[in-house]
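U., I forgot to send this yesterday:
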Amino acid sequence: MDQPAVVLLSGGLDSTTVAAIGRSMGFRLHTLSVDYGQRHRFELTAAARVAAALGAARHVTIRVDLAQLGGSALTDRIDVPKGSRGLAMVPGIPVTYVPARNTVLLALALAYAETVQAADIFIGVNAVDYSGYPDCRPEFVRAFQELANLATKAGVEGSLRFTIHTPLMKSTKAEIIRRGEELGVDFGLTHSCYDPNGRGIACGQCDACRLRLKGFAEAGRIDPIEYQ
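Result:
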């Protein structure tokens, strides 16, 4: 195929597996990471490692400082929930939700896609083993795909018909890990923790770490990264 596709790459389990899926489909990967002022900026280093390992044609990191707006434990002076308070199963949307983050990220991916003439955009959102964020739901993705085809020169003129791919939307973390392994993903390159220490070592207690560890346990695998 060798058609271009833009992949939003955070450096975590899900986006890394999605990038590997895109590659397995024959797409030429243009990966995009966003430095949005997140406290877990180590994920950007992980994303660059993953992009190189997957042979991305180009990896871009864009700076959009959402920390100036705050409103999230990932971008503001709000404690990241740990231990029992960090479980994804608690009701309501957690304080680790970053206001409109995926809307911003997909808008940047759309701009990148239009620039490189890519009709396909991949994002690793998941609505099974996830934190309950509203911008990870299929309803949001469908709405953004409609917007993408209304709000762009390529969409209006008909030179491209944008498709937002979410191949992991209905997968558990264990299924994602097994799929990644089938595609040769090295999960030792990835980073998921919301509150790592100064050396980037995962805390093991935040929502992201607990979901990750749960996935590896259910998949019958050992997580290859280091924990505090």
